[in-house]
Design goal:
With about 100 residues, the chain is mainly β. The protein is built from one helix and eight strands, in the order αββββββββ.
């Protein structure tokens, strides 16, 4: 099923996502794909314990929505300060430090 952004979810599901009730994955430094965790994508990620350089990619049907310096998969990582949350639809996260990726 193609991801339709916020319209993919019911009102109850949106509330759960906002609260992190859909679950999360702790990603240590390195690259992790959503598929390796048995899911399609994450809906947000948060830098924890330290600022992190993050490159997060979206599914292929959303070109230009990658979290990088260029908005493309070939761009460089962006520094996310400790405690900051980035929302989107991500199926791959590469981080220089620990991030918490919220399932959606």
């Amino acid at each position: 099923m193609a991801h339709k952004g916020i319209r993919t979810y019911t009102g109850d599901e949106i509330s759960n996502i906002a609260l992190g009730q859909g679950g999360f994955d702790i990603i240590n430094a390195g690259t992790v794909t959503a598929a390796s965790k048995g899911i399609d994508h994450w809906v947000a990620f948060k830098a924890i314990n330290a600022a992190s350089n993050v490159l997060a990619l979206t599914p292929d049907e959303y070109p230009g929505d990658h979290f990088s310096t260029t908005g493309l998969s070939g761009g460089s990582a962006v520094t996310v300060p400790d405690g900051e949350t980035v929302y989107g639809c991500f199926n791959s996260i590469n981080s220089s430090a620990i991030v918490m990726a919220y399932r959606g």
